[in-house]
Amino acid sequence: MKEKWALILGASSGFGGATAKRLAEDGFNIFGVHLDRRPTLPLAEEVQNSVRASGREAVFFNMNAADAMKRREAVDKMKDILETRDAKIAVLLHSLAFGALKPLFGDSPEESLNKNSIEMTMDVMANSLIYWAQDIYFAGLFADRSRVFALSSAGSRVQWAAYGAVSAAKSALESYCRQINFELASRGITANAIMAGVTDTPALRKIPGNAQMIDVALSHNPSKRLTTPTDVANAISLLSDERAAWIAGDTILVDGGEITGG
């Protein structure tokens, strides 16, 4: 390939934004998908400016990543760009954090998860990985040796208040990564889920009881600090290296020993 490209779903902040910056330093041009309105658009602009400051290109799409029509339009535009450059997508990162945060059994049906909220959460935070990967694959846009990553959390194994739908989606996301790897590794496309430690991001702050989660993580982590988006971005950078090709089909902890430390 003449150029390396990464596609990051959820590229404007948190893990996605940090990974876009890190991979740009590694020589990747960045396709970014994000959903921001005027108050948060500066976040996406800052990530794009950082990518360009590294001497790489940034092509961002402000859209709902779960919208099938918008997804196909974005992939078509990426294909047009890549075909003129003799380039492919070598890294796909799924870092979408949008789901319903309600208990299964609230004080009333209105305060509880319902069919629509559960299915929306699963569609955005898990199923969308498959739809994007399929569109890229069948458009012939994956590089010969490419990586797929998806952001999970300890919530796939540990129950937190109002996290039931997201927990199920994270578990499904890890399973999807194993299945992608099972089906495509022989064709040079490998997949891993990244289980990040508790990280103080806007998404975390929306979870009920987040202050307690932070306190517990700090007490359990041997380094006595939280995981940062940069920690995760650095791990993805390492795993994207050709020498890490045999690390595949797994859920990899990037938490400084948080889960095992307490």
What is this entry, summarized?
With 262 residues, this protein is α/β, with parallel strands linked by helices. It is built from 8 helices and 7 strands, in the order βαβαβαβαβαβαααβ.
Task: Report on this structure.
This protein is of the alpha/beta class and 262 residues long. It has a single domain (4-254), classed as Rossmann fold (3-Layer(aba) Sandwich). It is built from 8 helices and 7 strands. It has helices at residues 14-25, 41-53, 68-85, 115-138, 164-184, 202-205, 210-220, 229-239; strands at 4-9, 28-34, 58-62, 88-94, 142-153, 189-196, 251-254. It has a 7-stranded parallel β-sheet, with helices on both faces. Strand 4 (88-94), helix 4 and strand 5 form a beta-alpha-beta unit. The longest helix is centred in the middle third of the chain and has 24 residues, at 115-138. The relative contact order is 0.14. The model has no long low-confidence stretch (mean pLDDT 94).
Keywords, separated by commas or semicolons:
Rossmann fold; seven-stranded parallel β-sheet; alpha/beta; 7 strands; 262 residues; single chain
Give me the secondary-structure topology.
Blueprint: E1 4-9, H1 14-25, E2 28-34, H2 41-53, E3 58-62, H3 68-85, E4 88-94, H4 115-138, E5 142-153, H5 164-184, E6 189-196, H6 202-205, H7 210-220, H8 229-239, E7 251-254
Parallel strand pairs: 1-2, 1-4, 2-3, 4-5, 5-6, 6-7
Count of alpha/pi helices? 8
Unreliable stretches covering 5 or more consecutive residues: none
Provide the structure class.
alpha/beta
**Main beta sheet:** 7 strands, parallel
Number of domains: 1
Using the alpha-carbon principal axes, give the shape.
globular
Strand content: 15-25%
Corresponding CATH architecture: 3-Layer(aba) Sandwich
Task: Give the helices and strands as they follow along the chain.
Answer: EHEHEHEHEHEHHHE
